[in-house]
Write a structure and sequence with these properties.
This protein has a seven-stranded mixed β-sheet, with helices on both faces. By secondary structure, the chain is an alpha/beta fold. It has a single domain, classed as Vaccinia Virus protein VP39 (Rossmann fold, 3-Layer(aba) Sandwich), CATH 3.40.50.150. A hairpin with a 4-residue loop joins β7 and β8. Belongs to the methyltransferase superfamily. NTM1 family. GO terms for molecular function: N-terminal protein N-methyltransferase activity. This is N-terminal Xaa-Pro-Lys N-methyltransferase 1. InterPro entries: MeTrfase_NTM1, SAM-dependent_MTases_sf.
């Protein structure tokens, strides 16, 4: 989803996912509750994004003022895990839930020799070709897939970036996707997972069919996928009323 990719990445949805959201559309789930992998869960999300404009504002849920602090924090976090002995290389990165390529343009393309985008929305990927035209020779490919159906090629990527999209996958599908991403990493490769993190339990937002998980649930899914947390950091510079956003650097449990 483009969220199959920024795919979900791209959409902050702060207005509906923060502490002031419309409670008639938001349900709290028990910490151990797992969303059914039924088609309606994914169909609602796709219907929602069909109405989202293929612009930076659309990717940010009309909170464009948060784009710069997001980009700055992402750049600084990435630098800690890329380049040098024992770190991820800078050959190829995958932007999951890429939307039009906001993260690719500002975070990944300045660092990597090539970048690939994956998103469920064809309209976003078509616009990405215009949005990224100045770096078009470094964009290796555009994959139009839902993340729950996408399998990264084995051992291809130095970094796989998954931002604001994990909440559009059921627990089962997120676990499976993280496992497939682990297999898609090169030696010393890193997955960066960046998303809203609930303060407690899970929050389901019916408006865009997304779930915000708390830290314990996220870390449990990460562990079950065969990944370990190399580092984590909270996003700074966002309004206090926003749901906290965290960045996780993940690598294979067998990483040396």
């Amino acid at each position: 989803m483009a969220k199959k990719h920024e795919y979900i990445q791209y959409f902050l949805k702060i207005s509906s996912r923060n502490q002031t959201h419309d409670h008639s559309r938001v349900q709290k789930l028990a910490p151990t509750q797992v969303i059914n992998g039924e088609m309606q869960f994914y169909a609602r999300a796709k219907l929602f994004y069909q109405e989202v404009p293929a612009t930076e504002e659309g990717m940010m849920g009309n909170f464009i003022e948060l784009s710069n602090p997001d980009i700055q924090a992402s750049r600084e976090f990435l630098r800690k895990f890329v380049g040098g002995p024992g770190r991820a290389g800078t050959d190829c990165a995958l932007d999951c839930g890429s939307g039009i390529g906001r993260v690719s343009k500002h975070v990944l393309l300045p660092v990597f020799n090539s970048v690939e985008l994956v998103d469920m929305m064809e309209s976003f990927l078509l616009e990405a070709q215009n949005y990224l035209q100045l770096s078009g020779d470094k964009v290796e490919s555009y994959h139009c897939y839902n993340l729950q159906e996408f399998t990264p090629p084995l051992g291809r990527y130095d970094v796989i970036w998954i931002q604001w999209v994990s909440g559009y996958l059921t627990d089962k599908d997120l676990l499976a996707f993280l496992s497939r991403c682990r297999a898609g990493l090169k030696e010393n490769g890193v997955i960066v997972l960046k998303d809203n993190v609930a303060r407690e339990g899970c929050i389901f937002d019916l408006s865009d069919s997304s779930v915000t998980r708390d830290m314990d649930i996220l870390r449990s899914l990460i562990k079950k996928s065969g990944l370990v947390v190399l580092g984590q950091e909270k996003q700074d510079g966002f309004p206090e009323q926003c749901v906290p956003v965290w960045m996780f650097a993940l690598h294979s449990d067998g990483h040396s």
